[in-house]
Amino acid sequence: MSQLEKKAGLLRRTSSSKKPLKEKVVLMYDEIFAKEDPAKNNSRFWDELFLMKVNLEYLEAKLESLDGDEVMKIKDNINSLFHHCVQALAEEHQIKVVNALQTLCALFRGVHQKNKSASGFDIINMLVGFDKAELRMKDLMESLDSLLCGEGSESLKALCLKLLLCLVTVTDNISQNTILEYVMINSIFEAILQILSDVSTRGQHGYDAVVLLALLVNYRKYESVNPYIVKLSIVDDEPTLDGMGLVVGQALTQYNRQYKDKEEENHGGFFSTLTSMVGSMFIADADEKLSVQTNEAILLALYEAVHLNRNFITVLAQSHPEIDIPTTPITPVPTTPTTPLGTTPLSMDMMNSSELPLDPNLQTSNLLITFLKYSSIVMQDTKDEHRLNSARLCLIILTCITEDQYADAFLHDDNMNFRVNLHRMPMRHRKKAAEKNVPSRPLVCAVLDLMVEFIVTHMMKDFPMDLYMRCVQVIHKLICYQKKCRIRLHYTWRELWSALINLLKFLLSNETVLLAKHNIFHLALLVVNLFNMFITYGDTFLPTSNSYDELYYEIVRMHQIFDNLYCMVLRVSTNAGQWKEPASKVTHSLVNVRAIINHFNPKIESYAAVNHISQLSEDQVLEVVRSNYDTLTLKLQDGLDQFERYSEQPKEAAFFKELVRSISLNVRKNVSLNTLSQDLLLKEFSTIS
């Protein structure tokens, strides 16, 4: 029996010599795939077709079995099927609407699957007929808009969104999906916003609506004016923005909760006993398995909202009690068995209200905290391209946030303190920090902690240079804001200085290997200039004069690394080669660091000799530093508090094209109309009818 026959809904064999009977709907499909008009001998053909349960597998398989030429032979019938599907969407008989939506999805998928190399115009011609495409697609989009905005069945709304997601993701490259031109012309943007602003519809359809919006925003975004980009950038309706933030926040929270549960499960019982016996040698392997697929679709939605709409920044800061979301939804959620961790749409019970019960014992949270926790998970393991891209997107979002004045003001607000339990990568040389010990601080401290954590934990042979560059730039932007506003942040700056110095040490130790792949001088320059920021302007934003003294102490204590860096960049800059100019910039940037080392080192040695001390304590060194500031001469360096603002085009365009392609493939794989059980739908509407 052929694969197509298996999908044909064969009923039974009457005898060994007779062929099995087919379902009536399959026989009707076969009539459509014949050359003659199926309604020629049966005027009620289309009415009858949409009253029958759709056989999705057979219809898609039949379409996929035909090449372009074969489809063109029956083009009129395919066009007629499409036309009658659209007409059926306006029917009062709900079963017809359900069957029409499912048939449309099968049409979109089936025709595209077989004709991947065909032009977009050919696909439109095969499906709709090019001469009638504008009218048919206008009717389709208006019907979908009415169904999404109307007060009808929630199941129908879910089905409409599934159809739209199916339509958007039928091609690997979303920008090559020419049929989306009609989705641009006949916008459903307002329908998406209505779903997000309404409590009940957001709970059931918010996830699909947000993912759909994120994908539509990325259609030919660099080649033409995309109306979804324009409209998203000017949304200022508070309930809508709050709704979008709630959907994103709940999806990230659910991922965080699932990860934490899995982590506790892996570290409990016998495993925990074993690791306590033999040390932490197995912890890294165990946690690596926890780094399951991240939710890039919802992360892309967050990025587009933050990047395009300044009003959305206020949503990041809105506080609410922190609640533990159950990992198993209370109401059944339609997902496929292969849905990755964190990509499951959320149940209505989790999302149907932004008004959460107040409890004085609950920790306060917000979307930004949830995002920081999420970032601390996905940034732990960047060993494969997928996870690397997720970490990159997190850092790009943080870049956009740290460039926004309102966000910076909120991050540094000393009256808004939060306890943020970031996930830390298990490492042999340090104990896992107890969550209860995390102090309540301004949110900027959590951002800096996240950056320091990344710097410390990713010094490896397969060096993620791009992520390090972004990480150091985020730190730089925060310090620029502190310098500009003279904010004296009470933060453990020594941890940051130590991390940066160790990063320089790593670059030096692996110079040959790294230079074969990366311009390490650019990163070294950024790091050295961070120190120059502290040296030149530290007295305006470091919390106390002692902090400034400790900065000098660290520079002097680790002088060997700065000396070695100077020798290396001097060597490279005095030889002809591709790195001559970038190395020369680092040489010049080290002038004040070297002045500090050359000024204080002789003073410290002299103090030790006079007092007959072989090894000075930290307090003794600090005493020498404090008493010799007056004779230190430093050069004023220009432009230390300047930075290039983030711009997606052209630098990030290639990254986002590939990211959207990956998300589109994943959404296509997981969007199956079978997830909305046909039997349940038909049962629901049979009762209504």
Automatic annotation (TrEMBL):
Protein's cellular compartments: Membrane
Q: Does the keyword Acetylation apply?
A: no
Top-level taxon of origin: Eukaryota
Example of a GO cellular component annotation carried by this entry: membrane
What keywords were assigned to this record? Membrane, Transmembrane, Transmembrane helix
The principal location of this protein is membrane
- Protein name as annotated: Armadillo like helical domain containing 3
Q: Which residues form the Armadillo-like helical domain?
A: 435-671
Source species of the chain: Oncorhynchus mykiss (Rainbow trout)
Q: Which PANTHER family match?
A: ARMADILLO-LIKE HELICAL DOMAIN-CONTAINING PROTEIN 3
